[in-house]
């Protein structure tokens, strides 16, 4: 949902104040409405557990809201510069400053309802909401809302992990590494050797095990193997499913299934990344071996 403010809303009259308030709170009101419509998910945080934490959680800096551009990545999430946020906030803050003098409709809601309603918002909405005022910022930074969003957008796995910097940062870090991982497949589709060369960490310990079963060790050897693959292999279309990421401070690993042909079963793949000089680099790629008799024979000949 897009929230836009125009300078023409001068906020001089009481009436325009109310309109601005309604526009700002629309996403939340819709969420509250859906709260009573949608079936209750068992993993969604309950108001009882979230209300207590709301007070104690520190508000972390809001991470990038540009869903398609945050692959620039940050190891702990939430530490990325709030440049985009500032641009939006500049517009919003004028309106908010005026609004805070009047009574906010949000303040009329029970805090438990607020927190629970936030767990139904999507990523951009939660980001936008956190920019409206300090109270909404606090509510939108609630860890349980971000944990619920993580479960909704990524996986119900990792339910028991306790991210050191909270679920908001973990959500951002996960989103970043999944975008980086998607780039890996874009590079293969484009068959771009320069892009693949930048994608890998230039180190002697990086390793790559292709679907052919061939094993390469060291940066130069790995990049040469991709050069050969891009030169020889036919253009293939594939679908990537079941992407699961685990992100630690400066290391992340991603598992996935890649279907070249839906009938032949997936290649099971693992990518391991390290964080250096402000971005993620691939240090290990492992694909399960293609289960075709001819390929197996070819490999035996090569390796014997
Ligand atoms: C946001 O993403 C778009 C692509 O959808 C990109 O063109 C734009 O530069 C990004 N903005 C920032 C501030 O990174
Ligand atoms: C990948 O794993 C699935 C089980 O999840 C298995 O059925 C399939 O054969 C595996 N693919 C390869 C190429 O080993």
TrEMBL record:
Residues 111-151 form the F-box domain. Residues 41-85 are annotated as: Disordered. Residues 59-73 have a biased composition (Low complexity). Keywords: Membrane, Transmembrane, Transmembrane helix. InterPro entries: F-box-like_dom_sf (IPR036047), F-box_dom (IPR001810), NTF2-like_dom_sf (IPR032710), SKIP8-like (IPR044260), SnoaL-like (IPR037401). The chain crosses the membrane at residues 17-36. The keyword RNA-binding does not apply. Residues 42-51 have a biased composition (Polar residues). The keyword DNA repair does not apply. Residues 177-291 form the SnoaL-like domain. This is F-box domain-containing protein. It comes from Hibiscus trionum (Flower of an hour). The lineage of its organism: Eukaryota, Viridiplantae, Streptophyta, Embryophyta, Tracheophyta.
